Amino acid sequence: MKKLESTLWKVLNEVRGHKTIGELKGIVISLIFLKYASDQSLANPFTNVSVPKKSQYSFLIVNLNNSGLLNHVWDAFCEIENENIQLRNTLTSLDFQFFFKNREDLELLRILIIKILEFDFLEINISFSNFIGQLLSKFAFYEGKKGGDINTPDSVSQLMIELLNPEKGKVLDSTCGVGGFFQNIKDQYPNNKFQFYGQEYNGSTLVFAKLRFAFNQKNIIEFGERKSTLSDDQFPELKADYVIMHPPFSVRALTNEIFEGDPRFEFGLPPKSNANMAWIQHAIYHLAKNGKAAILLNNSTLSVGGKEAEIRKNIIEADLIESIIALPSGMLSNTSIPCVIWILNKNKTRKGKTLFMDLSNFGHKEKLNFQKVFDDKSIKQITSIFKKIQNDFLLYTGHTGFFRLVDSEEIIKNNYLLTPIRYLGFEGRIKEDLNDAVSLGSVLEHVKPKNIDKTLEYKKISIKDLSSISTNYLINVDTLTKGELKSNYRELPNNVLMIPRLGDKLKFSYYGEGVSDIAFSANSIFTFRVDADKVSLDYLIGELFKPYFHIQFSVFKFGAGIQLIRLKDLLNIKILIPSLEEQKRVVEESRERQFQSAAKDLGFEKEIAKLKMAQMKDLGSKKHNIMQHLNNVKASADVLTKMIELNNGVLKSDEIIDPRRGITVEKRFLRLQESLGKVIYYVDNITNELKYDKAEIINSVKFIRECKERGLQNELFSIEVVYEKATLEGREPLINISKNDFEEMYNNILENSINHGFVDENKKYIFRISIAFIDDFLEINFENNGKPFPKGIAQKFDVKGEKAGATAGTGIGLWKVSEIVKHFGVKMSVFDEPTTDFPVGFNFKFNLETL
Predict the structure, then answer these.
(1) Quick one: 432 exposed, middle or buried, by C-beta within 10 A (0-12, 13-18, 19+)?
(2) pLDDT tens-digit series, residues 410-420
(3) N or C: which end of the chain has fewer CB within 10 A?
(4) Closest among 224, 254, 219, 226 to 236, alpha carbons compared
């Protein structure tokens, strides 16, 4: 099989300059299907697929040099469809004629037919569905995200299937793609007999699925029409023994897809803004009385609020959830979004209990595409534990940090949240001994927000104003700005510690005694009084920034996209509080370490000073060159003026000016031109002057996706666009800026990431763009998981020429970005957090616009 693949891909690499991989996919799969069908019919006239004469591959070879080859190929597709009812509207619906129109296309088609002729399927004797499945995965890899949407990674598929452990019976996949789950079930359980039922909305994908299983004999495989599952269920009466699905994540449902009276939505009507809970209920509806389901969804299903939370609550109370299994990030192609497997069971062995598993420490990256996969040993370990617990063979009920069997009562106490890490504890993840730790609530008292005085003008504090540095936690009032306050703003009292309830970064700040009128976003920030009799402020802040606190903090977060933490959970986090004397000693030692670190950094500051000195010398050198050439210009002008006076206003090009050197009038003019050219060059290199286009109202999400399509791309990194719809409350993400200037910002930041951050060819990098409405602004973050900033550069990113390393003194990219945002009135700040997964980032605050 590998030889076939390599032969085919060699051909495709040779011809894809003429056609894209996407344009070639349909005709290549169709021709391979004809060749396989022809070979099978020669060996066995009673095969599943009958091949008429005009559809025989040999007939295409005979007419290879015929000018009507395109028509012969089309006739071959039509004839084989007419002869086989299961193939109706498959090959012909791919409409290869749309991509093959001229003489060059005809030659390309001949090449493909000849190369595929070399595939002797009788001699190789391979499974057609396996071969086509691998080819489709290869196509998806080369097509990128568009192609990857139809594929569930094999190791994830294998894990889901082994968790279901299907014995026999009816299997439903209502988002079947090209039938990957069906093929893997056949491969993993070759001696079991199944009836497969598949539905798929994408037309070409459904065609590939039908072609893939056209030669199937042992199992019944039935595909519905090309319809949306949610609006037009193709198997409405089916009760399946097993349901297995990988539906699209968090898509918006169409108007006719979710409606009152749909019998599938027994546990509540899902919101149209997100169909996740519609898919879960669809699976439950189709389960037989002893049926089981495995569904791959994103993590938001575990903790999102609103209507979805009510549906989740009802499903939990119905005791249908057998297991929740969190997968590590990076398992799916082209995205790092973490996802989860829901295991549902109409007849659970362990009533009133749910198995939670966190597989964060499983999986390894593949060398070629940097995607994480599970190896066979990991899958065996995971499924072995799952089966033993569900069958009550495992004497203990959990292993801290990996898996745990949890009673429904505990889930109810946790507000019906299903995030596995919440139930798995901290052992093995935290180095500190927390046996003597106290709850954060024992040293903090929550201060309820006070309404603002509408007669006053307030300065504003948002999450972005809080500090991510433990040594700089005091609020600087002078840096705050005034402005219109939204309804969620409240008056900030004196002497309070501020902790954000939104986001996944640790940020804390303290506001002491002040006279300024300050308001803060009460739905984004908690405020607390600190019990000074128990803990010093310096010590407390230091502990809040430590890893052991962050690990606990992350456990209690929930929500899709932007993470939240409840006040109750925050105050329950454990913190080490020794005596005040010991706290003082710890703070002093910490300050000493910081001083030593700062002393080391002075060496770097000296280097920065050297770079600046070098820049000044460079400017001095350019000034010297400019003056030298301007003096040459003046000298030439003086000489030529005198020559005009001596010759009564007449200049001849061959007239000698300097007999000793043979310089003529013509040569002097050429020297004058050369000096002027040099002056223009040096002046242009000094100024780097910017010009701006006229601002307009644009949809930021749509335009960023356009920038992504047009921008830089390679296999070393992927680009993710995360759009937090929930924060906009029905508004469009509109901003006011020129398209050209915004795209220059995008490209400069991406180029900077590629050139200075994505430096390890063995690592898969992520350039993540998130859009959300926070504290009266539309915020757009550009972050990446590449190499952190060099020390000190983050504070000087907007200085022209500031750059570290061998290219020092030449950088203007981020300076341009800062100049653009200043011109359009956009606020910009930098994320410089070298110890986090995404150490480098830029935050832009746009005023939210309306049309």
Answers:
(1) middle
(2) 999 988 999 88
(3) C
(4) 224
